[in-house]
Amino acid sequence: MAGFIDIHHHFYCPELNASKSTFSAKAGWRTPQENLPWSPELSIQVMDSLGIQVAILSFPAFPAGEISAENRASARRRNDYVASIRQKYPDRFGFFATLPFLDDVQGVLDEIAYVLDVLGADGISISSSYGEGEASTYVGDDRYEAIWAELDKREAVVFLHGNQIPSSIPSPHPTLGLPVCEVGHSPAIRKPETDTSNLYMQVPSETFKAAAHLVVTGYKRRFSKVKIILAHLGGSTPFLASRVAILSRYMGCKLTADEILDDFRTFYYDTALSSWGSNLTMMESFVPQTQIVFGTDFPGGVLFLLDVVRYAYLSHNPPCDDAVTT
């Protein structure tokens, strides 16, 4: 059966299903009620309506965590849970595995071995940064070198999703919540957690900052066998890559401007909540069409919007009759 592969498709484990509406409301976004509680059967229903043959499931990105046995156990439970879904519906789902808090390097390496060697995961899902406030660390930091070396050795696929980080600046309007736009300063200067009036997210910028960090530190070039997919067409990455190439070079990056841009072009970019026709036209002038992959962000997206995304992508990437379009 020909159809799309949805690279960006979230699963909610039971505890997240129970709290998702409250969490989304604080962020200024309403997860469609018809998508809650999430179930694999609900996803299959929507996939069938959109011509999606396979969805690659991933857990939503969260920055919080700690080095602990419970954190390792939590990642293991999520991975075993999503693997059971893939086992039940092997023709409809794959999954990107969840890792423990990234500072727990040994725990992360152990989980990489488990999910790839035992569970047969399709890849690894990571957040743009780990920790909160001034303790936040982006994924190109040297403390994670051993993790990237292992992923490179395995030629792994990595799905990089921008973090959901609170901002200190209020929403400009109730209709401009996550993921419509993004505002904000560093989370280090946000208001206290008890004040939720300004709780906002800057997912697109966080994706860009993580991608740029991997480029200017040389990690993207050094660990080139890792295939990294950036969510939401990379957020603001396509628009700001040239700024990094010029200004970071001036500020001391050892790569030339051309090398920086070349490394940005080696990322893969998924279409989730981003594939309006003009966006895709711009992306095709930035990266080869083979670097653009289909994604919906279900169950966070509204069904009619997912249909717009599908047809915008389809207009630029007609599917083959005898193959799955990726």
Automatic annotation (TrEMBL):
Keyword 4Fe-4S assigned: no
Biological process annotations from GO: secondary metabolic process
GO molecular function: carboxy-lyase activity; hydrolase activity
Keywords in alphabetical order: Decarboxylase, Lyase
Domain Amidohydrolase-related: 5-300
SUPFAM superfamilies, per the entry: Metallo-dependent hydrolases
Gene Ontology terms: cellular component: cytoplasm
Family: Belongs to the metallo-dependent hydrolases superfamily.
PANTHER family attached to this UniProt entry: 2-AMINO-3-CARBOXYLMUCONATE-6-SEMIALDEHYDE DECARBOXYLASE, ISO-OROTATE DECARBOXYLASE (EUROFUNG)
Name of the protein: Amidohydrolase-related domain-containing protein
Organism (species): Leucocoprinus birnbaumii
